[in-house]
Amino acid sequence: MKINLLTDFTGHNDVLRGEFIAPAYQGKWMSLLVAGSSAAYLCSHWLQNKQNIPGPLRLPIVGSLPFIMGDLREVMTEMNKKYGDIFIIYVGSESIVVLNGLDTIKEALIQNEKLFDGRSQKQFQELTFNLGVASSQGDLWQEQRRFVLQTLRNFGFGRRGMEDYISEEAIFLKKAVSSIDSNSPCDLYSILIKCTCNVICAVVKGQRFDYNDPQYTEYMNLSKEFLSLIGINNPVFVFQLLKYIPGDLFGYKKAISISKDLRKLYKQWIDEHRNRLDNGEEPIDLIGVYLREMKKCKEENQYFFDDQLVQVIMDLFLAGTDTTANTLTFAIMYLIIHPDIQNKIQDEIDHVIGSHRKPTLKDRFNMPYTQAVINEVQRITDIAPLAIPHATTEDVLFRGYTISKGTTVIINLHSVLWDEHQFPEPSNFKPERFLDEKGNFSPCEAAIPFSLGKRACLAESMAKAELFLLFVHLLQNFHFKLPPNHPELDFKGIIGLTVQPKPFTVFVESRQ
Ligand code: HEM
């Protein structure tokens, strides 16, 4: 997942050239120049934002940056209250329109989907080359998204095939968790992330890794470091000029270097697959199917090429690994502090599945309470609170405002998932929100953690299958408790590309 509340800071040329002014007058001139340039900026702000979209003040150079410091979920909530469901912020020189609330978001992403389904082509250019699925747009994006979706469907994607992949990995997860000493607190997250990454490995390269394989650990560490460097918490993504400062204070160069290493590794995987196909093997994974497609339409299809495949692989790993692992980790955290809810799920599992049969996706229909808990976890943890920024594909007249072509548009999913009219007392964990009076699972229109419309998460069905199967496997076999004297759990997490749980440890007891 990428949250790029970023800008390519172009830097305006109103540098104050104090050295050309006699020292005696310097202070006065400086003040005049500062005041003048500020006024010019405010004027230009007014002129540029002639559609009068409300929003915080735009200051010289930094735009609205001083007003959007801190936890973006809280900042956006305050601005939503103050300015309404559409507001505009400036990050450096770039204008960003923020859409809030279910009705506004539906109107943009469903009623006007073609106008809002672009992606900004500036901020991550150096990392993604605007290729792949998540960062591309137009025909290239449509073609790749269609192909990847189709391929995932052919592997199962909610049907038997994908279910088998996930269930197989769940057995390895169970083994890894079983090997933990019940008297030692364990870092469950580090196991879950290897598990969810293996599901993507199976789909992409038809192979899983042993959790103790040092190469796999090295790969996980590399991706983890990469994710930590490319979040909005890295100022270089806000002020791109900072990347020209000698040294690597903010880790930007490191991020580029890791992305090169990852690309090299993916290229190696592609070459291995190409050799196998050349030796007459049938494709069994996404890379194989993609290479076959490339061969099939070598001449006439401009959208299938090696670099594009490399970026598709990177997108699937980046978007598909920590989203699910983070959600599962938060789920366990909520169950630790709500032992009654943990017991209720385990009663449902014991009743519907028993202690020995493998959980299947069909069980979902008989497990309303577990379904309600998973939906509530996804709502409250709000793993991708600002989705991936969209961009307008044309000049758009939207709710009386003109938004020009190419403007970055943030879809504030947090404003929906934590809307107190939709979900009273949104900060309270209440699975009952998703149950009717008879105890049946009752989905809610405003529960949109995967976003809406044509850009919505490409792997929603797969992610839901993973969450259900892995969660149920865990709770069928284990009971989770907070170790004595453990500091209070932090449910806000760390907001970067996604919301990450802060490190914590847990006691795991076997239920078998
Ligand atoms: C709990 C799990 C997940 C959640 C909550 C989630 C949520 C999201 C959200 C909010 C977006 C942005 C939608 C937008 O821009 O409006 C997205 C995009 C995307 N997700 Fe997921 N996701 C999850 C798991 C996955 C998995 C497992 C995969 C891959 C196998 C995946 C692949 C993608 C891709 C490729 C995109 C970009 C789609 C595009 O730009 O067309 N996601 N996801």
Structural notes for this entry:
One of its GO terms (molecular function) is oxidoreductase activity, acting on paired donors, with incorporation or reduction of molecular oxygen, reduced flavin or flavoprotein as one donor, and incorporation of one atom of oxygen. Belongs to the cytochrome P450 family. It is a single chain. A four-stranded mixed sheet has the order 1-2-6-3, sandwiched between helices. It is built from 17 helices and ten strands. The protein has 512 residues and is an alpha+beta fold. The chain has helices at residues 23-48, 72-83, 102-111, 113-116, 125-128, 138-154, 160-178, 188-205, 214-229, 252-278, 286-296, 306-320, 322-337, 339-352, 368-381, 414-417, 460-477, and strands at residues 86-91, 94-100, 390-391, 396-398, 401-403, 408-412, 478-481, 494-495, 499-500, 507-510. Mean pLDDT is 87; it is low at 1-34. The two termini are 36 Å apart. It has a single domain, classed as Cytochrome P450 (Cytochrome p450), CATH 1.10.630. The longest helix has 27 residues, at 252-278. It binds protoporphyrin IX containing FE. Protoporphyrin IX containing FE is lined by residues 1, 133-134, 145, 200, 315-316, 319-320, 323-324, 327, 383-384, 387-388, 411, 449-451, 455-459, 462-463. Protoporphyrin IX containing FE binds at residues 1, 133-134, 145, 200, 315-316, 319-320, 323-324, 327, 383-384, 387-388, 411, 449-451, 455-459, 462-463.
Task: Describe the secondary structure blueprint for this structure.
Elements lengths: L22 H26 L23 H12 L2 E6 L2 E7 L1 H10 L1 H4 L8 H4 L9 H17 L5 H19 L9 H18 L8 H16 L22 H27 L7 H11 L9 H15 L1 H16 L1 H14 L15 H14 L8 E2 L4 E3 L2 E3 L4 E5 L1 H4 L42 H18 E4 L12 E2 L3 E2 L6 E4 L2
Parallel strand pairs: 2-6
Antiparallel strand pairs: 1-2, 3-6, 4-5, 7-10, 8-9
Helix pairs in contact: 7-8, 7-17, 8-12, 8-13, 9-10, 10-11, 10-12, 13-15, 13-17
The protein binds protoporphyrin IX containing FE.
Cofactor: heme
InterPro entries: Cyt_P450 (IPR001128), Cyt_P450_CS (IPR017972), Cyt_P450_E_grp-I (IPR002401), Cyt_P450_sf (IPR036396), Cytochrome_P450_fam2 (IPR050182)
GO molecular function: heme binding; iron ion binding; oxidoreductase activity, acting on paired donors, with incorporation or reduction of molecular oxygen, reduced flavin or flavoprotein as one donor, and incorporation of one atom of oxygen; steroid hydroxylase activity
